[in-house]
Amino acid sequence: MKKFTGIALLLLTAGLNGFGQTAPKPYGVLPTQGQLNWQETGMYCIIHYGVDTYTNKEWGFGDEDPKIFNPSQFSALQIVAAAKAGGFKGVVVVAKHHDGFCIWPTKTTEHNITKSPYKNGKGDMLKEYREACDKLGMKLGVYCSPWDRNNPNYGTAEYVKTYRAQLKELYTNYGPLFISWHDGANGGDGYYGGKREVRKIDRSTYYGWDTTWAITRKLQPNAVLFGDVGPDVRWVGNEEGHAGETCWATYTPHAPDEGKIPANGYVKDYEGTEGTRNGEYWMPAECDVSLRPGWFYHKAQDEGVKSPYTLLDLYYKSVGRGAALDLGLSPDPRGIINEIDVKSLTEFGNLVKQTFAVNLAKGATLTASNVRGGNKAKFGPQFLVDDNRYSYWATDDKVTTPTLTIDLHSPKTFNVIRLRENIKLGQRIEAVAVDAYVDGKWEQIGEATSIGGNRLIRLTQNITASKLRLRVTASPVAIALSDFGIYKEPVHLTAPKVSRNKKGEVSIITEAPVSAIRYTLDGHEPTSSSPVYTKPFVLNEGGVVKARSFEGKGQQSECAYASFGYAKTDWKVLDATAPNEDWGRAENAFDENTGSLYSTLKKESAQFPQQISVDLGKEQKIKAFGYLPRQDKQADGIVDSYVFYISNDGKTWEKVASGEFSNIKSNPIEQPVALKQEVKARYFKFEAAHVIAGNGITVAELSVY
User: Fold this and answer.
1) Which enzyme class, named as a word (predicted)?
2) Rounded to whole angstroms, what are the CA distances from 144 to 141, 168, 183, 361, 499?
């Protein structure tokens, strides 16, 4: 009897030490269920379609006539289906942009869809999107701009009541929603019921965000709130579609001014790119970027649609860094996604599906240097390949840098590695490295930081190996790793890069040697019978250059594209506001070098307007101008209000275009300014009436088309 009792005690002790081992203690702040749902969504699209689609603008002024909004083929089903074909799991509908026009029959303003010809004023596009999402099994979210350039009460407490009433309508009539999206652009010039003036607000306090967010929590409790300061999902700080190489899901937002409360449009947005290690809030990043150069449809940008492999690269730099990818879709004036866009989306979706169809690590034997409490049944490495994001391999509290050996049993060829943590226990791991056993020794093939909800390591070359090793190289606490996978991205050629110098010479290069580069100048995509590029060629009059790499039997890259204005060989500065010589001469405004600047920035205050006038060398036909802002991610001197003039004698000037460069700070691409009609001139003047920040202007490049 005593012997039996002793054995029982031993078994009980083993059970307490093994199968009774408790889970690791959570580390830091943790995600809510809504944030977990958002993390699992991974990719969604934001849809910009409204009056701006018909005015060729990015930001409407607020004085647009609703009668221009009359699509001939609007189909929410086609738009949502295009997103689904790309592998996206939801759509965020821009229900109201900064122009104030609402695409649902709101009771809060007359500036809405009922005043348009669409369905004789009986239309409700939000309802159609809701029905399309339900039919296709997609999630729905809404964007309602806090800024309203049409509303006469904007800037007063009365408007905030209107804005909250609009949110209540959207939350009540079109749910369930997975996200409520709040833009940071607010305050500035607008129509405002005919006042046509600038209205400034205290961005820190005006919207009373805590009260506004409480409406979401009450009416859409499962929706996450997106904004510069979350509170659930933060803006990544750029509109280029990528998070930082290190990207923490935790974040502490800061206001630009000491002592102020951060808010949407009032935050040090650059901090959002990487987040904050051990930040105050669980607030992962969303990477928003448009499929086209702009957010709204512009026919001139049909050639600028991002290619499938460009989208795949953004996927690795967003979803692959623990963030989400929010891709902008822009229905054309017909009210559907253009065929060019649909093709790119579909091919991208197929690429992602093909790449991640098979985890080559399944069936492998996984051996860990440590398992929590020795309890493999509960915390063993086998959970890394079971398709469950929340089952996990864990280590003892004192073991923070364990290793894992993966025996694949036979050689496998791969080029992508996927890791995930069980983020229900926080973001724990700070760095890892992966080795392959090649030619009788271990060689490091990849490394990463900040694993979190998802981490993809895209290797620069294919790796073939039968044995791998994962090393956790930094973690403040025991690990809780939930996923390990290796995958094979399809083979492809890299598209060539097209550039032109000031002499008008076009060069086409590739990152690696290929059998041939073929190009066209007639707008058609290159084929195997197109001219072969052998050396730089002159393109003085401008035009479109398209190029492709070719290799072997029929293998070809995606099509590269570049649009050029007139060559700038003979251009000269006629006159210019005195430059800051430390920054750059006036001639830098047309040197075909996007990294150089013409700058008039100075420490003391400056007067506006400021200008630069250029002699083209001879009279030219002019259909459009282009302004490229500085490309170094700084805002000082970026022009957002402009005037273009022309002259034939360099003395008498005629204004041919004026307006604003909307959203130029967040999306600093070349800003095209199309003229209402073609003109002839030898001289042109670019005048800056206002800049985003700083005392002076900066110009990376000016172009004439």
Assistant:
1) hydrolase
2) 10, 11, 8, 44, 40
How many alpha carbons fall within 13 Å on the CB side of residue 497? 7
Query: Are 90 and 80 in contact, with CB atoms under 8 Å apart?
Result: no
Neighbours of 691 (CB within 10 A): 23
Largest CA distance in the chain: 115
According to CATH, the topology of domain 572-704 is: Jelly Rolls (2.60.120)
Neighbour count for residue 403 (Cβ, 10 Å): 15
Which percentage of the chain shows pLDDT scores above 90? 87
Average pLDDT on 349-376 reads: 97
pLDDT surpassing 50 at residue 2 = no
Mean of all residue pLDDT scores within the chain: 93
Name the token pair of 653: 């000037």
DSSP 409-429: EEEEEEEEEEEEE-GGG----
662 vs 584, higher pLDDT: 662
Characterize the bridge pairing of strands 179-181 and 224-227: parallel
pLDDT at residue 76 above 90? Answer: yes
Q: Which residues contact 157 (CB under 8 A, 6 or more apart)?
A: none
pTM: 0.88
Q: Is the pLDDT of residue 8 over 70?
A: no
Element (H, E) at 314: helix 308-317
Owner of token pair 């999306």 = 667
CA distance 586 to 489: 46
Half-sphere exposure of 640 (CA within 13 A, CB side): 18
According to CATH, what is the number of the domain 41-356?
3.20.20.80
